[in-house]
Amino acid sequence: MKTIFFILCLILASLCGFAQEHASQDSLKSVFFSLTPRTKKVQQVNGLAIGLGYDIDINNKIRKVNGINLEVNPFSILYLMFDDPSRRGFPEKPTVKINGFSIGTGHSNQNEDVAYSGINVSLLNSGYSCNGFSVNGFYNHVTKMNGLHLSGMTNVSKDMNGLIISISNNTENLNGIQIGLLNNSEYFNGLQLGVFNQSSKYTGIQIGLVNKCTSQNGLQLGFWNINKKRSFPFLNW
Q: Tens digit of pLDDT per residue, the chain (237 long)?
């Protein structure tokens, strides 16, 4: 009996030590508040992250923010003159995840491909994904968009599910609605509404002054409609 009791005590002590060790490790990796960028061991913020963002230092250690993310970068306006996100192409995976509310002068992540989920408000955004609702003063350039996304100049994505509104919208694969002056989608299922609509292959409806597509399964409604079979005014199929 004493032997069994001693073994149980030994196991309990080992478990307590194991738990304390992991608790101390987690306390180093997760904090309530952090400045960005950060080069220390903190990998997760559950609360508030505020600073210049995640594209300044390639040694940034933060990989997830749950809560509020504020980015006040005075150099954001320079991105409009010198940064062309299309040259980098579409990121294949995220390196930083932000869940909650994010607001900034500009999210242009040359070294970090951020996945935003929730509400994202900025002058410009370039990263991996936007899920939820986003408003961008100039452009939004991400691999994936899901939800409602508004931009003053352009929305560019590889895969889009939902509604995008901008002067110019450009997607490779769209399931949803494009609203803008110029709409372009390689493949789409849904609705294009604009002055000029273009698609290689679509299922749905194009409504605009000029509608153009190669392969069509649906309707074209506009002043002039072009597809592989014919060019017609007002209505084409």
A: 444 443 334 333 333 333 333 434 444 489 999 999 887 888 999 999 999 888 776 678 889 999 999 998 888 777 777 777 877 788 899 999 999 999 998 876 666 799 999 999 999 998 999 999 999 999 999 999 999 999 999 999 999 999 999 999 999 999 999 999 999 999 999 999 999 999 999 999 999 999 999 988 999 999 999 998 889 899 998
CA dist., res. 131 & res. 54, Å (int) = 18
| Boundaries of domain holding 151 | 28-160
Residue 189 lies in a domain: yes
In a shared domain, residues 97 and 172: no
Are 103 and 172 part of one and the same domain?
A: no
Radius of gyration in angstroms for the set of CA atoms belonging to the chain, rounded to a whole number: 24
Q: Which helix (H) or strand (E) holds 4?
A: helix 2-29
Q: pTM for the whole thing?
A: 0.82
Q: Say how far apart CA 145 and CA 151 lie, in whole Å.
A: 13
* 12 found inside a domain: no
b/e sequence 170-198, b meaning 16+ C-beta within 10 Å: bbbebbbbbbbebbbbbebbbbbbbebbb
Is residue 41 domain-shared with residue 92, that is, in the same domain? yes
